[in-house]
Every structure is written in structure tokens, then in C-alpha cells.
Design a protein that fits this description.
The protein is mostly helical. The protein contains two helices and no strands.
């Protein structure tokens, strides 16, 4: 969960810098790509999240 929140924060910061700084539009694009990758990651985790792994002893 902390990785998900960290990637959301990185995407937002890159997006803000990309919008406000002149000539750094590529940071906005990178922020959007990171956000989409994070949403795919979260979706994959939620899909398989119901099963718990048992530790073999």
C-alpha cells in the first residue's frame, strides 16, 4: 500500500512541475505514465488480494 501511495505522490509532483515549469511538458507525460502504471499495479493487486499465502513449515 505504501508503494501505491508513493507512486501516486510522485505522479502528482511530476505533473505539477510539468505544468508550471516552461519547457518541461515531458515531466507531465512521465507523471501520467507513472499514474497509469500505478493504477494497473493496484488493479492487479486487488484482483489477487483475496488469497493469503500459507507458509510451509
Amino acid at each position: 500500500m505504501s508503494l501505491f501511495l508513493f507512486l501516486i505522490l510522485v505522479a502528482v509532483v511530476l505533473g505539477i512541475i510539468g505544468v508550471t515549469a516552461h519547457g518541461l511538458f515531458y515531466l507531465l507525460v512521465i507523471g501520467v505514465v507513472v499514474l497509469l502504471a500505478d493504477l494497473v499495479y493496484a488493479g492487479a493487486r486487488l484482483r489477487r488480494g483475496g488469497r493469503k499465502q500459507r507458509v510451509a513449515r
